[in-house]
C-alpha cells in the first residue's frame, strides 16, 4: 500500500505481489480501510494487480 504513485508507475505486467495505491491522500483512514476490505473480498490474491483506493469507494 502506498500513496507514492511514481514509485509504482512502471510495474511489470506480472510477477509482483500487488499494490494498493492511495492516489488521493485526503482520504480518511476509514475510507481507506473500507476500500481495502472491498478489494480483499473481491480480489483475495492481489498478485499482479494494481488497485486504486478511489476505485473502490
Which secondary structure elements does this structure contain, and how are they paired or packed?
Elements: E1 19-21, H1 29-42, E2 50-52
Parallel strand pairs: 1-2
In short:
This protein is α+β, with helices and mostly antiparallel strands and 57 residues long. It has one helix spanning 29-42; strands at residues 19-21, 50-52. It is flat.
Number of helices: 1
Task: Tell me the domain tally.
Answer: 1
Radius of gyration: 11 Å
Q: What are the low-pLDDT stretches, counting only 5+ consecutive residues below 50? A: none
Describe this structure in words.
Helix 1 (29-42) links the parallel strand 1 and strand 2. This protein has one domain (5-56). It is of the alpha+beta class. The protein has a two-stranded parallel sheet. Helix content is 25%, strand content 11%.
List keywords for this structure.
alpha+beta, single chain, 57 residues, flat, two-stranded parallel ribbon
